[in-house]
Amino acid sequence: MAEFVVDEAEEVAGRVKKQIISELRGPAIFRLCAAPKDIDSDGSLNTGHDGKRVIPEVYYLAAGEMLALVLALSWVITWIAQPPSPIDPTKTIIEVNSLKNRIGYNNLCVGFDMPPARYFAAFSWMFISYLAMKYAWLDMMRTELCRDHMTTCNVILNQITDAVYMIAFAGFMFVFLIHPWDTVWGHSAGFALLAFAQWFILFGNTLESHNASWFSWTFIVFYGILTFGDFFIIFGNYMHYEKHGTPWAPWYIGAAFDYGWFACLPLTTVFLPAAPALVMPVRLDDAVQMGRTALDEDCSEDEEMSVQDED
Fold first, then answer.
1. Is 0.90 topped by the overall pTM?
2. CA 58/CA 60 separation, integer angstroms
3. According to the 3-state scheme, what is the secondary structure of the chain?
4. Of 115, 193, 275, 302, which one is least surrounded by beta carbons within 10 A?
5. Given this model, what pLDDT does residue 40 score?
6. Is there a contact between 74 and 66 (Cβ–Cβ < 8 Å)?
7. Residue 97: phi, psi to the nearest 5?
8. All structural domains of the chain with their residue ranges
9. Which of 108, 259, 119, 282 is CA-nearest to residue 190?
10. CB contact set of 175 (below 8 Å; sequence gap of 6+)
11. Which residues, listed in sequence order, are joined to residue 282 by a DSSP beta bridge?
């Protein structure tokens, strides 16, 4: 048993080391934006740094990197701008806001609740959503290719989690439209859906894998406790505030769960189990005409085939 634990620890340590080396080579978003180096002799385009392989997890990692960057820069912008609080114009948004009144501390989204940080974050979120949706789409494709080696329940779970992951990142845009001083419930709903989708996508991929380590499952349980506990405390504080005008949980407990959940985001890539890459050669094909003209041509071809069949 001791040797098994040591082997598991060495495996996780090795993956952490590889992750650090990967980050030192450059953020995942830079690797995705890099222009292809060459075209193969058969005319296909190299779509990744590892030949023709496309690794879906690189998109997952890039989305997490951009999310962390946008949160950090939003807080810097808000700290510099010091926008006034909508509920008390004599104070700044950092000093007084609807969320702080209810949970006792400034959580992460306070940084982009007011302009100019909100404009920056809303614009940046379009790119984050693309990366997340691209990952989910590639993961769906991989699930279909691996269907013969998976149980029906695993296939269905993966497809559902990928779809919810897409919806969560697209729906998060409502966080910028629904202000916390109008309704904290509507404002926090996007965050809650994103957090749960982030956990379920990790759970689904780990369940699908046949080589998930004991450390991976331990992290999933810990991450799940933080995720569900975080929003249990937040929503409990909302209900308590509506009745009594104060949060029910001490602020430091809520902050520990909230910032602990955020700290787990970069670790999700480390604990994701190994999964197959996709081979996606890209090459030029004959020009395809679109629109009304193309439709007329298709109809003409169908009529000619019908006449030939009659003859």
1. no
2. 5
3. CHHHHHHHHHHHHHHHHHHHHHHHHCCHHHHHHCCCCCECCCCCECCCCCCCEECHHHHHHHHHHHHHHHHHHHHHHHHHHCCECCCCCCCECCCCCHHHHHHCCCCHHHHHCCCCHHHHHHHHHHHHHHHHHHHHHHHHHHHHHCHHHCCHHHHHHHHHHHHHHHHHHHHCCHHHHCCCCCCHHHHHHHHHHHHHHHHHHHHHHHHHCCCCCHHHHHHHHHHHHHHHHHHHHHHHHHHHHHHHCCCCCCHHHHHHHHHHHHHHCCHHHHHCCCCCCEECCECCCCCCCCCHHHHHHHHHHHHHHHHHHHC
4. 302
5. 46
6. no
7. -160, 165
8. 56-276
9. 108
10. 109, 187, 190, 191
11. 45
Confidence of residue 284 (pLDDT cuts 50, 70, 90): low
Task: Name every residue whose Cβ is closer than 8 Å to that of residue 281 and which is 6 or more positions away in sequence.
Answer: 40, 42, 44, 45, 47, 52
Tokens coding 268: 């999700």
Nearest-CA neighbor of 64 among 206, 170, 156, 198? 198
The closest alpha carbon to 63, from 218, 276, 282, 272, belongs to 272
- The pLDDT of 229-256, averaged and rounded, is 94
Mean pLDDT of the chain: 81
- State mean pLDDT over 138-150: 88
Phi, psi of 152 (to 5 degrees): -60, -40
* Residue owning tokens 């979120």: 125
Dig out the tokens for 241 from the structure.
């505030």
Residue 8's pLDDT is 53
